[in-house]
Amino acid sequence: MSPASVAPRPSAPDPSATTTPRPVLWIADDRATLRASRRRLQALVAVGHPVTLAAPDEPWVTAPKGVQVHHPVARFGDARWLLRGLHRPAEPLTGWEEALHGDPVLARLVPTALTVRPTRGQGLEEVHALLAAALAAPRSGLLQRQVIALAEEAPEAVPAVARVRAAAGLAGAGRWPRDDATLQELLRDTATSWHHTGHDGPADPAWCHLVAATFSRGLHADRTSSPLVEDPAAWLAPLRSTPTWQRLTAPGTREPAARPTVEHPHVVLLPGTYGRFEQPVVRALEAAGCTVDLLDLAETHPTLARRLPRPENLAAVEALVERGEHGLPAEVVERLAAADVVWAEWADLPAVWASHLVRPDQRLVLRLHSLDTLDPWLHLVRWAAVDAVVAVGAPVARTAWAALGEREDLPPVHVVGHWLADRWSALPLEREPAADRRLVMVKWGRRVKDPLWALELLRELRREDPRWTLRLIGEDIEGAGEQQDYERAVLELLEDPALAGAVERVGHTDDVAAHLGDCGFVLSTSRRESFHLGVVEGAASGCVPVVRDWPVFARYGGAREVLPADWVVTTQEEAVARIRSLADPAARLEAASRARQQVREAFPPVASATRIAAVALGRESAGEEG
């Protein structure tokens, strides 16, 4: 579906409509909270809602005009029901909390007033988002349940920018409490407002928040499903209906593919802002007679280092697309101009820049990874300038093309998986007896890797045989900034008595192979992968691979289309059955030998490197199969 074909919804209700006045009790714990709440309080007073502000002595002086201020004092009675659900019962009551719970004035207000208590900088802007999800999560310390009615009766107190900002924030933190359709409705209503005002784009904070909410990592990157993957046309429709998005993503006219004719082509390789996978590509190009200049655009233009959509990088994209303002130093532009071929390792912001800076006689090749399919930068690439796309797996290419929709300027796609150095297959297949009961997982400390799935698998194996253990290699999940509820669940399961002494955490290491040589099974429990190099390395090293069929991409082929099918399982029960069926040392040894041979056959180093160079130089026709 093209952006122009997406029709807007009927106009939203007029936010200036009159509402029935309702008493509001607003609790501000400190000056910062009150400062953040001022505009909401002013809006409520302006439309006739009588507001009582409960605040400590110190911050009340900054209260807006028209707000009645009250200083709670616990003089008598036990009114713990006053803020039931707002505080965490496990936390001891401070003097301020005791005053809130015991003050008789507040006790009389609560039965009729709508009670709001913003915490941690969160204010009424979250009310609409929580209302839309039909849940106020009262024990989370956000908002009292009665405040739902306030969003219904005072919509003018929650402007569009606040609604979409709240949605983006909740989704990004993994706290969006209900279905994706509800959030999509909110995005659609927000986009509709611009059809009446005529204002949108990076200069409008609401538009930037709409982009952020549409591509929120919390909704797409580490869940077991993504609305952007399941139904991209419907999910992207609100954003695609905005004029600025249509201008920034307008299809271009494709020119004949450029192919270098010099004997030793000069390649400028952009490593990108995510994981570093470019070194095998560099070696393949050099082996083909190319000179390679590794150019990290993010180091020369700080805005390009920002991975998530923000007003500053969206404004920079607009300046690039509409006015040709790239902001790069002259010497960087000269290095790009000297290239016969530009290779962009990710569909990220540097790739967007390259697509607008290359000349028609320069060849531009872009390699796709799984995270590219979930970010806005994929859509902002000038695809008419891209001569070829390399995908490390067919499911990633299909996901990306489904998200981009019906465009006539898309380039041909070549599927070339990663390949391994010979050192991985140098480890012996025969191992000490303990290896037959030792699982291993590499780079586990992120929600997208789903270590909880692996730990639950281990616990199930140990129900029948307590000899099973798990080695976790890589950065820990604790303190890694992952979604807190998930992190807490992982840490709690690690402390489960059923797993006592069964989990070994190695931490970061530059010598992963040394920790694979005494393991019997390597796990890939990820929710989303494009290839999962780590599990292939484990298989080459002599471990039996057990791969969860990555659920986010399962509809487009998933792990079964990237890796040997007998490695892949759909459920934990299937994983347990596969592992137990190969637990006998002889059976495990035979399966490990077969897996190593499968790696050699499926991902041959010389042939894969040759194909990569051929695609880069325009010497191979497109196709998903190699």
From TrEMBL:
Residues 1-22 are annotated as: Disordered. GO terms for molecular function: transferase activity. Keywords: Transferase. It comes from the Bacteria. Pfam families: Glyco_trans_1_4. This is Glycosyltransferase involved in cell wall bisynthesis. The lineage of its organism: Bacteria, Bacillati, Actinomycetota, Actinomycetes, Micrococcales.
